[in-house]
Amino acid sequence: MGGAIFVSVCAPHALRAQSATARADSLERELRRLEERVESLERAKTAQEDATRAVIRDALATADSKINSFVTLGGTFEMAQGWAEDTSGGFERLLLLNTAELDFEIQVGPWTLGSVVFEYDDGTDTLLRTSDDGEASVDRINVDTAFLTLGDTREFVPYTSLGRLIVPFGISTGDPVADVLTLEDPLTVEVFETREDAWLVGLGFPTPPRPAARLAPRPPPVRPRVLNPFFGKLSRGLGYRPPPAVPPPTGSELTLPPAPPPRFHVGAYVYNGATRGAFRRHGWHPEEHWGATLGYRNTGAWSVDVDVDYNNSVFDSRFLETEYAPFLDQIDLVPGMAASVKANLGRVGFVGEWNGALDNATFRDDANRAVAMRPGAWQVSLAYQFDWNPWVESIGSQGTYVAVGYSESYDLNGVTRLVDGEPERVGTVPESRFLVSAGEWVLDGVRFAVEYSRVVDYPRGQGGTGKSAHGIFSMLTYEW
Question: For the whole model, what pTM was predicted?
Answer without folding.
Answer: 0.80
